[in-house]
Structure formats: C-alpha cells, structure tokens
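ok so i was messing around last nite and threw this chain in just to see what happens. nothing serious, just curious
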Amino acid sequence: MGVSPAPVVPRPPFGATDRRRGLIVGVVIVVIAALTRFWDLNHPTDKGTPVFDEKHYVPQAWQVLTGGNWIEDNPGYGLVVHPPVGKWMIAIGEWMFGYDPMGWRFMSAVVGVAMVLIIYRMTRRLTRSTMIGAVAGLFAICDGVLFVQSRMGMLDIFQIFFLLAAIAAIVVDRDQMRERMYNVWLDGRMNDSPLGPRLGFRWWRFTAGVLVGLGLATKWSGIYFALFYLLLSLGLDVATRKSFHVTRPWRGTLFRDALPSFLSIAVLPVVIYFVSFTPWFASETSVYRHAVGQQVGTGGTWSWVPDAWRSLWYYESGVLNFHETLTNSAGYHHPWESKPWTWPMGLRPMLYAVSNGPDMCGGQECVRIQMLIGSPAMWWVSLPMLLWGTWRWLVHRDWRYAVVLTGYAASFLPWFANLDRQMYFFYATAMAPFLVMGLALCVSDVIGTRDAGPRRSERRMLGVIVAAIYVALVVANFVWLWPILTGAPISPTMWNQEIWLPSWR
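result:
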C-alpha cells in the first residue's frame, strides 16, 4: 500500500527578495514622480485664485488653519459638506507656503508621489517582481487622472491615498499571516484544532482600519471601501487556511477572524471618523456647533442626548441631505457632469481651467487649458483588463486580481446606486490606482514565466517585446497629453489635435 504524499503548503519567501535592486528602482520611480508632480505646480490658476473645486476646499482649509481651532467656523461658506481630514492636509501646505498655489497644492503633490511609491511596492509584493512593480509605478506616473489630481487642492487625492495605503496594508497582513501559518506548520501544530490556529493580534489589519478611517474622514464614500476591504480580508483568510489544509477553513475564518476583522476594518474607521471631529467639539464657534437652541429645539424625544452630539447629528443630516438632493431631477446640471458607465474608459473628462490670449505665445493666439483625462493608452483598455482579471480570479484563483478588482469595484460600483445624482469624472480618481495595477498584472501575464525549454523562451521573448511596446505607448501618450494636463500654452491647432473624442469637448 502506497504512502499518501504530504500536503503541499506555501513556502517562504512571502515577498520579493531582491531588496537592493528594489530599493534602487523605488528611488528612481519616486524621483521621476516628484519631478512630474512638482514641476510648475503654481499653474494653472484663475488669475491667481483656485480653479474648479479648489474654490471650495482651498479657502476652507485656509480658514481651518487661521481660525485657531482646526475646524470651519464660518457658516457663510455653505458647502461645508465633507469631513475635516482632507482640509487639514491642504492646510499643512498653506501653513508652509502661504495662501498661494504652491501652498494649497503642495500636500496633494506629496501624497501623489507617495501613491506612486505605494503602487510600485504593492505591485512588487503582489507579483514578487521588481520589474512588474516598476511597470506599475511607471503607469501611475503616466496616468492623467493621478497626475492632474496630484496637482490640485482638492480632497479626492487624499482620500484615495489613505484607501490605497489601506489595501496595501491588507496585502502585507496576508503575507504576514501566511508566514505565521507556516511557522505553525513547521511546529507540527496545524491539526491541533480543525479550525486552524489563532493568529494573534494583526497590526497590519489594524493599520488598514486606521487608514480606512482617515479615508472616511476625508469623504463619506470611504465607507464603501470599509465593506469591500472587510470582505477581501476575510476572503484572503479563508484562502490562507485552505492553502495550509486546515480541516474547517470557512468555519475557522468565521470563528477566528471574522469578529477581529469587523472591529478593525468596519468599526474602527467609524470611531476614527468621529475622533476627527474633536476640534469641532472643542470649538465654540465651529459650524452648527450650537444648532440645538437655534436650528433645533431643546426639547423632544432626544433631549436626553447631549446638545453637542445632537448638534453634530443636525450637521451630519444636513450634509446627507445635500448629497441626496444634488440630483438632475432637482434641477442640478453641469456641462461637464458624467455618469459612472462612462468612467472606465474616461469618455467624459473634466475641464478644470481655461484661458486664452496672445500674451502667452509670443504674440500668437494660444490657449491654456487643463483637463482631467485618463490616459487613453490605459483607460481605453480597462474593459479587457477587467474581463481578463475576473477570469484569472474566478477560474484560476489568482488572488492578485482579487485584490485589484476589489479596490476597483469599491471605487466604481457604489455610484450606480443613485444614477440621478450629479456626478463628475473626478470621482473616478479612486479607480485609477487599481486600473494601473491591474494593467501591470496583465503585462506580467503577457511576459510569462522563466520556465525552461525553447518554446517557453521564445514565448517569453515575444511577451517581453509586446510588453515593451505597450509601456512605450503609455509613456508616449502621457507626453502627448502633457500640455492639456498641465495647462501649458498651446496653439488652437494643437488643442484640436489633443482632443480625440467629441465627448472630450
């Protein structure tokens, strides 16, 4: 009678090992990202003032900085409809450089560079390849959405920075848990319980919860990521227990991991959201701080709740009402609004700034136009990437695509819940990091592995050529779009050549 083979379990290393090369490549990627993000950061402006939605958040951040309380205390703004963390980030730059374009855009550029680094490091960890990580970093540098948003004093870049860092922490947590499971297997304790081992406190999962909380405390849409990331974390836990042949992996995840994951990724972000309003509670002049007794009566069913919390509830319900009633049916229309089904391919971009005149081009007529456009070389192939990634995930159980597609879905699908709402392409900023990482994974699949054999070698060589051509196309596309991503002065003829679709006008 034959002896049953020992079960195959994952072996270390659980991450890329070429640390020196990884560090060098990372430094190069960061330098290039910094040069592009900080170049001529003072332009464009609206005659020295903020452009587009900067006009809301830049003065609010300045008021937060100069009011002495780190919270808005001027109800006259009327659009205090987002939590404070993103405005704190803008205010840091204004504290450093003053109330000018460098001041209100500095921190956006900083986190824009940091996002490129996170994308590089996260993709490198997903693929165990410094080269593919570098491809993802280069794609992030060359994506028009990430580029432009990194040069604007708006909230979206800060939110997706926190949420991208959160999913990166979940990936690190996954690798750390597999390493702990491997050590348990080495000790021969894997079968001590059919549920598998307890894995101890998970600091990276806790960190992910903190980061999701900061994203939620920047914009409310961060709550969707809490749900999707919770499901992702639990799914990775099930996969880890299965890979180490735990007898009851689903039940083990339910009883060992579900509650701690829920507390870290779902409950903790809500706590951090309310903690971010500490300055609001501490100030006597913050917006709606004393709504009870003015906008709200002092009696009633909820009179037992402290006035400060009732005032906050009034404030938050007003924010909810603002977002719920900002709809087309209520008469709110904008020439550059778009619906989410147009976002994956960037069919309806955003116009941020425009000016014209002969003074910019040496006496010749020219224009300065800045648009938020997703680089077509990447955004126009998003649907094939999504289809391929879904097939790889569901059919081949490729967990890497599960991570990327979870982030993409969290940033895209919730917007279909209320299609009547007024929406813009800059809401798709959250989709961009997951798009570029998904494309990098596809490049990895095109290149293939280093398996021995002449046919494999020829196939890999062809894959390398195809991948190199595509990467060159992405870079060339970014260079071509540079004038309308930065608002550089160009002739009307050149402007027309930059516009590839009628819907771009």
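not much to say yet. The beta strands are 350-356, 367-372, 489-490.
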